[in-house]
Amino acid sequence: MEMEVLAGQNPWWKNQGWEGDDRHLSLLGESRFRYERAGYVPEKKGVIVVYGPRQVGKTTWIKTEIAKKTRAAGKTTDIAYLNAEVLRDRFELYDAMKTLGSLYNPTHIYIDEINSVNDWERTIKTLVDENAFKEKQVVLTGSSSINIMKKAEQLPGRMAGGQYKFRFYPLSFAEVVKVYGVNAGNPEEAMARLDELNTILYRYFLHGGFIKAVNSYGQNGSLEEDLFAVYSAWIDGELAKAKKSPETATHIMAGMAESLTNEVSWTALSKTASHPTIADYVETLKDMFVATYIEKSRKARAGAPKNKKIYFTDPFLYWVAQFRARKISRIKIAETDSATMGKLAELAALKEMGQCLDQSHHENDFDARRYVHYEKEKNGETDFVVKLGKRTHRLESKFGAIGKEKENVTYLTKSTLAKNKLPLAVFLLHPEESLKLTEKIK
Length: 442
Description:
The protein is an alpha/beta fold. The protein has a domain at 3-167: 3-Layer(aba) Sandwich (Rossmann fold), CATH 3.40.50. The protein has 18 helices and 13 strands. It has helices at 3-8, 23-30, 58-72, 90-103, 120-129, 145-152, 173-179, 187-192, 194-207, 211-220, 225-241, 246-259, 275-287, 315-324, 338-361, 424-429, 431-434, 437-440, and strands at 46-51, 79-83, 108-112, 137-142, 165-167, 263-264, 291-295, 308-312, 372-377, 380-388, 391-397, 410-413, 421-423. Helix 4 packs parallel to helix 5 (120-129), helix 11 crosses helix 14 (315-324) and helix 12 (246-259) packs across helix 14 (315-324).
């Protein structure tokens, strides 16, 4: 790798005012709404991987971390960054790391989009075995979960101790609320500010946790075609890497949007592909952080065991699917209906539970399906059966009217608090703690 290129990716080595010229930090500074994920990855030595969808802010997070660390570092060359997308192969990656170590011996190394290098894990293994990363923190980022998970498994004993895989999700509802300048540190405070939270929640049903979408909505009062095109192009790009057809994926995503919150079989998602093809595509979309699904609880006595409930991982991606299916070119709150909002409310509940569970369990290969199921019995379906903390809860998302109530079920509502009802916005902010509020109601 040319030294000029490497130095160009690390402008803080020679320029104290580099932040003003950095594209990612400049865009962040120009944004009305911004966020900082301080402490998202622990400060510890060893090799760590951080992976999540593209266009979610991983590189901006890295640059923010670098800006903080360079201000505190003994010398600016203690911090090194490499965009792996400019590398030809794993041999150039090896040469770049050896050059860095020889010249500067940095204490923190960030290698962005490592999954763009074929067989990257072989180079990382060699470097660790050569003690090139001894007493350093090396953060590898990627946008393909299957690439990161499978290849990191080929590095036994060479990753950081404890948790070394961290999923970089779109912003949670709690993070979005802070972006809007609202603070509610506990469920009681959240209840007192429910009117503000519900206003944010309706926006969240559109822009989700993608900060670019948050800012686009803040600027336009809607989500526009150019924004959807950016994220649709990301999906197409990842599909191309997986050698998957964008057209087939579009049909399947449209089927996901149509069947959202309902129990479905694979074949119900699309009439244009076979069962195995659909299953394969859904798994690919899951690896891309576009789709997720839960299965029927093993304790349930009815329902087809092979059926699933398939969701998008974020409310915004529901609208991207609608855009790809040519059902919308733009969207604003006034153009939505109560049925769609009800579906997005259930989607949001699953998203927040998944992220909350991931952060509390500290597992390298976290999968929400271990902790969240749905049940379908004679008296109807229960949306979620989930263990939060030491208790298992049965939850129903009811953003609209509630019909016949079931025993031992907590209903996630728009604004009602009762012994068996909890406002959704409060639950999204404090999933585990908020459920204790209902116990206080007499």
